[in-house]
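tool_log.txt
---
The assistant was asked to compare two proteins side by side. It first ran the structure predictor on the initial sequence, then on the second. Raw inputs and outputs are pasted verbatim so the downstream comparison step can read them without reformatting.
(1)
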Amino acid sequence: SSIVVGVSNLQAGGQLGPVWKITFLCCITTTTLALILGISCAHLFEVGRGVDISIFQASMQSYQTPDSLNPATFFTNFIQNTLINPFKAFSDGNVLAVVVFALFVGVALVHGGERFKSIRVLSHQFFEMMMMLVGWVMKLAPLGIFALLAKLMATEDISVLSRLAEFAAVVTGTTIFHGAVVLPLLLWIFGRMSPWTFFKGTRTALITAFATSSSSATMPLSMKCAQEKLGVRPQTAGFVIPLGTQLNMDGTALYEAAAALFVANLVGLDLNLTQQIVVCLTAMIASLGAPGIPSAGMVTMIMVLQSVGLPAEAIAILLPIDRLLDT
């Protein structure tokens, strides 16, 4: 539902001509760069490798690389599950096909206009209901995190915690590099704006975003900074910023892609090229509908892990550091 809602928010795009197309292209480009950075740094630093952890043994005893992830059959099965029989994808747990099908539904709602207004409203209401349930669960998260940490410290070697700290450091460093180097460089090359001018004009919004870990909560302040400090037209800011808040989750995509490799290394699995592409595609599409709330990555992390057959239970070991990495 989050992906359907995220894409259906493009409804207003027809009122601004090419602006929504440029905005969408920018979102896809920066998210792709974030995914490449996340995957590359996870490989470079070999996050999670070399640790014998028993927490996943039961989940991984029957693990085998699914035939559907072999290059020869992946695209054929993907097209069949997405376009011919999407309900089979639901029943088989083919997450990537389900995500792409949701993307198509969102596009159909955009092109349907007023004819599908009731379905669009229902999707938004269902999404808000699910976010309310997630919010209730997250209020209990500190208790669960404490229990998980206690179990890890009591049953696992200290190397597990050290690897977790290394992973947190790699993701944090990569995210900072993406936000402080890659994005300003793109701004300078294509936007012809000094990164210093941009950071100076948006520092209030950036500080608020860092403190709240919520792009939705920061959105009104971002719009104010864009209009008053950077001279962006109100109609442009009123469209681009809300759309970017929903679709441009670079940090979430980077975190989830790196986390998939971290979990694979923990359990001693080497993801092949096709599987890594699936991880990137799923993380990208999932980030389009990730809610702009704290710990949004946990909402879609299961989707990314299951897309390549990794155990959903793996989020348990990531929960203790999720709040730190929530970008």
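(2)
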Amino acid sequence: MTCIGCDVVVSTEKKEKIKESAVAIFILAKNNWARVAISSQSAELAYYVLLSLFPILIVVGNLVPFLPIDVDATLPYIESMMPPDIFKVLKPILLQFLNSSSSSAISIGLITAIWSSSKGFNSLQTVLNSVYGTKKRKNFIIVRVVSFLIALAMIVILGGVVFLFVFGEQLIRFIQDKLSLPFDLLTDFTQLKWGGTVIVLTVVFTAIYFLVPNNRWTILYALPGAVFATIGWLVSSQAFSLYVRFGGGNSVGYGTIGIFIVLMLWLYLVSMILLTGAFVNVMVYQYLNGVDSQNVPKKEVEMEKSSKKQRRKLTKS
């Protein structure tokens, strides 16, 4: 025989637990959102990313002519990654980069890219410390060295992902023609490209959330925000591309100024997704470890409240 009353009690207890969890999550989100300023910090981060973007493009553009890549076959892949109006403005610049190279431009661009990227990662570290509620590292030299190394690693990884997306099929055709491989590498690459991109982005975001902030959380607490940021990055990029293509044509029509505005908006959106991913990590950590928005354990808060009540009773008596 089944106990109908017992089932009702169990379901009621489950509803109460779900309700308590929802209330706790809402309070944590409200308090943390009031503590951080994601909107303004995203604008700051987008500025530094833009500052480091052009030197990186100079380096990549001057390296491409040294590789066995057909420029005319490369342009359609670049065109598929951006709205047509933007590509029309950038096409002459891209052709100039892809058809000529300069060792001095590579050296200057590489130095500028590393410097600006380290500045950008220093800003990212400051912003993430603010979101995580931790203090900035005091040692200036360590901060700069860590920022430099992480920036260099991120440039190599993200640059490799972008390079494979744009030039991967050309390189695979070249390798397959030279080695006369019996299997079709191009088909395998096309099938694995998106899955590989998701994995690489998740690893990159996990590394950012784990290494950049000045805290000692385990790497597991970096995964929720990394998954959120990866999905948000891919979805927002596709959605923003569609918006610019169908709804933002007027702003893009102003040529270079329109391109700059669209680029800044996209970088701002991506920066906001990155910081929101950090916000998700903070929420998960605080909820699972029972701490409040100031990273203080609930037990300590309750003890502090009880001690205050006892003091009040003593003062009244």
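---
observation on (2): Residues 296-304 have pLDDT under 50 and may be disordered. The CA atoms of residues 119 and 284 lie 29 Å apart.
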